[in-house]
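Narrative of accomplishments. A recurring question from our advisory board has been how the design workflow behaves on a single, concrete structure rather than in aggregate. To address it, we present the structure tokens for one chain from the evaluation set, followed by the sequence designed for it. No filtering or post-editing was applied between the two.
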């Protein structure tokens, strides 16, 4: 197996696992745990489980109220996912493969929500005093972790360092 094949396998596996865990968690929260009728559930003094339907993107930006706007967000998600898949296909390091897989899996998970529910299901709410962080889900965690890993790699990989 070539190194690039291993990178692609890592990326595909991490995308699949991220998608699987995200969708399983959402189905469990909605249909088994029934977060809608239990919310808010205080887990820690600064962390609650809630049910929030996000019709936009991060921080509810570009909220999609009509079907046309929702389809446009889905088209942007599909285009971004395709771009990331091409990047994964060309990636050369296992860390890049893992990172891109996490982002792809998270993006697809949130895209599935838009198709199934018309909005993304979010559950995790951090807050301190009057400060309230946005509500997010496991797909969002995968996306942020993937971006963080790509940034980390860009600063630690010799090829990414400026030539001087």
């Amino acid at each position: 197996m070539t190194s690039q094949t291993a990178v692609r396998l890592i990326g595909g596996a991490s995308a699949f696992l991220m998608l699987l865990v995200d969708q399983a968690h959402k189905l469990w929260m909605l249909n088994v745990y029934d977060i809608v009728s239990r919310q808010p559930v205080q887990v820690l003094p600064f962390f609650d489980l809630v049910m929030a339907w996000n019709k936009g993107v991060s921080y509810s930006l570009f909220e999609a109220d009509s079907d046309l706007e929702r389809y446009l967000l889905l088209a942007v998600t599909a285009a971004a996912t395709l771009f990331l898949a091409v990047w994964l296909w060309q990636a050369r390091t296992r860390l890049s493969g893992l990172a891109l897989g996490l982002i792809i899996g998270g993006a697809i998970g949130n895209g599935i929500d838009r198709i199934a529910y018309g909005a993304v299901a979010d559950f995790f709410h951090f807050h301190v005093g009057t400060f309230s962080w946005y509500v997010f889900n496991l797909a969002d965690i995968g996306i942020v972790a993937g971006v963080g890993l790509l940034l980390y790699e860009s600063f630690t990989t010799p090829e990414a360092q400026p030539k001087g």
